[in-house]
Specification:
Elements: E1 21-23, H1 26-34, E2 49-51, H2 52-58, H3 61-108, H4 118-128, H5 135-143, H6 150-171, H7 177-188, H8 193-201, H9 208-232, E3 238-247, E4 263-272
Antiparallel strand pairs: 1-2, 3-4
Helix pairs in contact: 3-6, 5-6, 7-8, 7-9
Length: 276
């Protein structure tokens, strides 16, 4: 049967009873000698017992120091990790802010077209703001697994462009060039206003009213651009061709988007005659 230690503590002036005691073994005595604790407690002997806190203080002094040192290192590591994460968050936020400025300037100040080519898009944002250097590659590596084939990666890069436009649109609702193109495509494909508004609520498109206003704006500016072109080139001969197309042989079947499937549109082409 295992012998239990009931004391008393061999440390002078220690009167603790009915507590946990530990016996001083040969190994414990060697630790005490190694830690130079015998200079302070020269009366310690092998086989004697110590009150547990005294045992930890005298025999396991180096272990206690190691535990304290380890805890300190863990606290420092956690603190540095938190600071690093905060720094990364701030850096990412600044890059998204810079991306938003670049795309806003291209849409509203430069009236540039939507760029969906990954290589050109990356060059555009990096040349516009050096802070965005490597940002497109960072987002690409973040969302595209490296195990994919080269073809799949190239196709996924186009989706990363849409993600960049979406992040910029979340930060500034007026950066909506990509969403506007999606809305125009939906309306041209016969989607209802409710469907376009649903896609707008999901963040993939502008609302149907914005699409309609843009179409009216393009329609009103079209005649002005045509007039301006012929005014600037009034001394130049043009060949003007009108192709009036009708497709009236159809079954009238009203639905939620249209009351008839008859098609009619006119194509007008004006080609200048250049001197050879």
């Amino acid at each position: 049967m295992k012998t239990q230690n009931f004391g008393p503590c061999f440390v002078n002036d220690c009167t603790n009873t009915n507590v946990r005691f530990c016996v001083i073994t040969e190994l414990a005595f060697e630790k005490c000698h190694k830690n130079q604790m015998l200079q302070k407690y020269p009366y310690l002997e092998i086989g004697r017992q110590l009150y547990h806190p005294h045992y930890c203080k005298i025999i396991e002094a180096d272990s206690s120091q190691r535990r304290k040192s380890l805890k300190k290192k863990k606290r420092i590591f956690r603190k540095k990790k938190i600071e690093s994460d905060n720094c990364s968050d701030v850096t990412f936020a600044l890059k998204v802010q810079a991306l938003t400025r670049v795309l806003y300037r291209r849409q509203h100040q430069e009236s540039a077209n939507l760029e969906l080519d990954p290589v050109k898009f990356e060059n555009i944002i990096e040349s516009a703001d050096p802070q965005l250097e490597g940002f497109f590659k960072y987002i690409m590596n973040l969302v595209i697994p490296r195990e994919r084939s080269a073809h799949s990666i190239n196709e996924a890069k186009k989706s990363v462009i849409g993600l960049c436009y979406m992040m910029a649109g979340l930060r500034n609702k007026f950066v909506n060039q990509h969403k506007l193109e999606v809305g125009l495509y939906l309306m041209a494909s016969g989607a209802t206003w409710d469907a376009v508004d649903t896609m707008s609520k999901l963040g993939y498109s502008v609302c149907a009213n914005t699409v309609e206003n843009f179409r009216k704006k393009v329609h009103s500016q079209y005649s002005l651009k045509i007039e301006e072109h012929f005014t600037n080139h009034k001394n130049q001969l043009h060949v003007y061709n009108i192709d009036d197309y009708h497709a009236i042989h159809e079954i009238r079947r009203p639905d939620t988007t249209s009351t008839s499937s008859a098609n009619h549109f006119a194509t007008c082409v004006a080609k200048p005659v250049l001197e050879s």
